């Protein structure tokens, strides 16, 4: 799903890994994030642990710090989003948003708009969450229900 060339002409694709706590969502995301082919495919890779409560400025600053490697001490959301936009413009990126809980669509709007306007074709967002409703609210284009897949698999590595 992450390396797919389908649909690269428009928009950013959001893939959600959904499942109950402790089932391995973050572990799967880490394996994918560190994969050799994934490293070669994306120009920028970013990871932000979201958790609860959803704090837009904290998340945006975490993304920016991953991009720049330094803490810039910015405090205004719009300034941080502008810096993110400048840092990823024209680059194919993978952003992992780990442990997302919020179902308040308004809290996503600024970050989502920034990422969509900056995204080069092939950019992806990978979200881990316990709630399918969260995946729907953030505009998930592909849902991977880890619980359903594990029930159908023969062993821990048979799911692809």
From TrEMBL:
One of its GO terms (biological process) is defense response. InterPro entries: NB-ARC, P-loop_NTPase. Keywords: Plant defense. GO terms for molecular function: ADP binding. Residues 9-151 form the NB-ARC domain. Gene3D superfamilies: P-loop containing nucleotide triphosphate hydrolases. Pfam families: NB-ARC. This is Disease resistance protein RGA3. It comes from Gossypium hirsutum (Upland cotton). The lineage of its organism: Eukaryota, Viridiplantae, Streptophyta, Embryophyta, Tracheophyta.
